[in-house]
Design brief:
By secondary structure, the chain is α/β, with parallel strands linked by helices. 38% of the residues lie in helices and 14% in strands. The strands form 2 sheets. The chain has a 5-stranded parallel beta sheet.
Length: 321
């Protein structure tokens, strides 16, 4: 019987609400493994997972590596600076050479949107998208949803506003697809220069002022300004961005309710978020890091073909979607 998610996890846009819920439900008991004295189970013993990172990453790569090792998989890390890619080898050549070594899964992070799908269509191994260009970052979206669900109990009717550089953010897209499928209301807030021109097509509300977002939301997911992806002209200055859109203690003190504060990291403290907020009582940023390992363990577990009793239901949901 096929795995309940299919062969690959490339994004949340084409997953059903049932499949997303399955991942979150699977992550809950796996999260407890990280609390044990011996943080390991033999579920993926004998499987080989390659972390193929064409973009620099510390947080995501380490989180996947922890997840793989806690499931007892053999892990191989390949960074482009140490691979044949710098000598001109193509993405597919690299993957096919790895697959010839009889690997089972590839976790790929790439600067080009669609790279994960391109790879998945050309190799038999499972492919997990760890972020492709400005397209999606599905496991980040899932860990954000798990964090919210653990705090709120349900996502139905909860209001989540994504604040900041939505234009360049793959995290924002995965959050929008996932949250709306599970019944949350989603809004975005930021300078118009940092919002996609077709943002209304995503079915979200748009706030031009961060004060409006704070008044409306139950949770804020604060995005990093991706300065490395920007050319000149998106914002006047970092100081001006913080003055107009920064999440500060003073702004939160005027909120009509307590608001959860999230950030996918790494943070630009003093730009999109102040340290007083990032380290404050309403911040769940470190919970996101903990939940990230559990979610990635769940994805590895499900792609390996576990939970067979749920596979047929997931397959039917995919067909209906």
């Amino acid at each position: 019987m096929s795995a309940p998610l299919g062969k690959d996890l490339l994004g949340l846009e084409h997953l059903s609400a049932e499949q997303i819920t399955l991942i979150l439900d699977t992550a809950e008991p796996l999260r407890e493994i990280s609390e044990r004295a011996i943080k390991k189970v033999p579920t993926l013993r004998g499987a080989t997972v390659v972390n193929l990172f064409f973009e620099a990453s510390t947080r995501t790569r380490i989180s996947f590596e922890f997840a793989e090792k806690r499931m007892s998989a053999d892990t191989v890390n390949v960074a482009t600076s140490a691979s044949s890619v710098i000598k001109g080898e193509t993405l597919v050549d690299t993957a096919k050479n790895l697959e010839a070594m009889k690997i089972d899964m590839v976790v790929i992070r790439h600067a080009s949107s669609g790279a994960a799908r391109f790879l998945a269509e050309r190799i038999e191994s499972n492919v997990i998208n760890a972020g492709d260009g400005t397209h999606e970052h599905p496991t980040q979206g899932l860990l954000d949803m798990l964090t919210l669900r653990r705090r709120f109990g349900t996502l139905v009717g909860k209001r989540v506003c994504i604040v900041g550089d939505v234009l360049h953010s793959r995290v924002a897209r995965s959050n929008i697809w996932g949250l709306t499928k599970l019944g949350a209301e989603v809004a975005v807030c930021g300078p118009r220069s940092l919002l996609p021109t077709a943002i209304a097509d995503f079915g979200v509300q748009v706030f031009d002022r961060v004060e409006q977002a704070i008044e409306w939301a139950d949770a804020l997911n604060v995005l990093r300004l991706q300065l490395e992806r920007m050319t000149a002209g998106y914002i006047p200055s970092l100081r001006e961005y913080n003055r107009v859109f920064g999440i500060t203690r003073e702004r939160l003190d005027r909120a009509p309710r307590d608001i959860l504060i999230m950030h996918p990291g790494p943070m630009n403290r003093g730009v999109e978020i102040d340290s007083e907020v990032a380290d404050g009582p309403h911040s769940v940023i470190l919970d996101q890091v903990t939940n990230g390992v559990a979610v990635r363990m769940a994805v590895l577990y499900l792609l390996a073909g576990n939970a067979p009793a749920l596979a047929e239901a997931a397959r039917k949901a995919t067909a209906d979607d």
